[in-house]
Amino acid sequence: MTDLERKKLEEKLEKDNRKFLICNRLFKKDYGEALEILKLPYWKDSRFSELLTTSIWNRSILEIKSILDMEIWNNPSFQELLTPNIWQRNKTDIEEILNMTKWKDPKFRKLLKPTIWSSSVENIREILELDKWKDGDYRELLTANIWSTTASNVKKILDMDEWKEEKFRRLLTSNIWSSNYEEVKDILNMDAWNEPVYEPLLTSNIWKRNKQDIEAIVGMERLREPKYSHLLTPSIFSVSSKNVSSTLDLFEKYGISDYVTKRSLRRDPDEQEKLIKYLLRNNVNLVVNYNVKLEKKSSENVEKSRLNPILCATDSELKLRYGIDINKVLEEDSEIVKD
Q1: Which residues of 201-216 are buried (b: 16+ CB within 10 A; e: fewer)?
Q2: Where are the domains of the chain?
Q3: Which end of the chain is flanked by fewer CB atoms within 10 Å, N or C?
Q4: Does the CA dihedral 232-236-240-243 come out positive or negative?
């Protein structure tokens, strides 16, 4: 594509409100073919309109036509598969995948999701043929997450002897497919799981972190202290070890470590400190008091203290509930630092 053709195409896409289609792959295509693709009538059909994304430039106009002309798209049961991911596969692959007889089995039918296009025909077939699916105990693992891994990885994970232990059995959920066999093996073989204090952490949340991060978290001596022990729940694996450690340091710095909560660990520590400084500049207490009834039927209250909920809020909660725009807080902090 010449510079002049590129300029014309950019102008056309801007005029047609299709600037989102501009990318390097587009300019590697033949100018005439790119125009023909843009003129195709399919984009006026609600079934196909969402397929017009930058990934379409991976396919020729003939491939695009042959895929969109497939009769199967007239069947509403298959229309949810029409996402831009489909351009990762050619027509032959798509036909082979959709014609697999395994889809007649209800337990496999739910795997027909757009993520399937990221997997090869051979990999899909091998996964569906695994003997383990005959065992009802493993069927909850059959979710579309499985297409993010390989048949070899699935087989090795399912064949692990560790699943015979009750404490590990509950980790067999579809979240496991985000990890590879070696990582799963290493995590399950950690010495920490022999200690009663850490065994409650064995839930599917564990697959959100790698072994190094898990070791760093369970290896923090501070988390064994009474004031931090409430943090040792499965949700701690929703946060990186760096966030945990840095936030505890931060709260100790400002004298509020007795009030740390699991939710307060989620914000980036640098952002959290800027938010703390913002509250202090505006004379807002970092710890607030609240009343609790001594007993359910009693009218007598006792005053307790807790971390200001602002320090546990998400960005949207900050804005909607407290009128605080975190972006403005960060900008204000930058200006103060400059001065």
Answers
A1: bbeebbbbbebebbbb
A2: 1-99, 239-339
A3: C
A4: negative
